[in-house]
Amino acid sequence: MALSKLENLYRQMILEHAAHPHHHGSLKKTSQKIELRNPTCGDVLTLEVELKDGKVADIAFAGSGCTISQASASMMTDEVIGKTPAQIAKMVVAFSEMVTGKETDETEELLGDATILAGVAQFPARIKCATLAWKAVYQAVKADDSKATLGLLHHDV
């Protein structure tokens, strides 16, 4: 079966984010730094976050991994800038639910362009790849907001 034009566009966006990731590198000023690994496929992610006035002021990631993990990290960094830890916690839960096939009415509003990764639900072996960066950002900011509660996070790394 041939891919529809929309599926082709989504695939191209994922490949573009993986080939030219946004916010890739390191920060000069870091509030939090975390490294996570996905032993299943070898993805490694180092995430640096600068928090200012209770929000993510800047973010960067480095590491190596598959196309899905790199694209997901790139999209995540775009979406969390300017967000509070509590907002990020909601986003992480929504992303985790989305990639396991449980989208809600708020999914697109919460995740923006990252919703193009919803197709990961069709490939269970890739769920850990897609959620690695989202778990990292949650862990990086949760210490700064005692009100943030994660709820369900599927396939913990």
TrEMBL record:
The UniProt entry, under InterPro entries, shows: NIF_FeS_clus_asmbl_NifU_N
Q: Which Pfam families match?
A: NifU_N (PF01592)
Query: Per its record, what are the GO molecular function terms?
Result: iron ion binding; iron-sulfur cluster binding
- Which CDD domains is this protein grouped with? IscU_like
Looking at the UniProt entry, the stretches that span the membrane are: none
Q: Name one GO biological process term.
A: iron-sulfur cluster assembly
Domain named NIF system FeS cluster assembly NifU N-terminal is located at 10-129
Q: Which family does it belong to?
A: Belongs to the NifU family.
Q: What is this protein called?
A: NIF system FeS cluster assembly NifU N-terminal domain-containing protein
What is the native source organism of this protein? Answer: Liquorilactobacillus capillatus DSM 19910
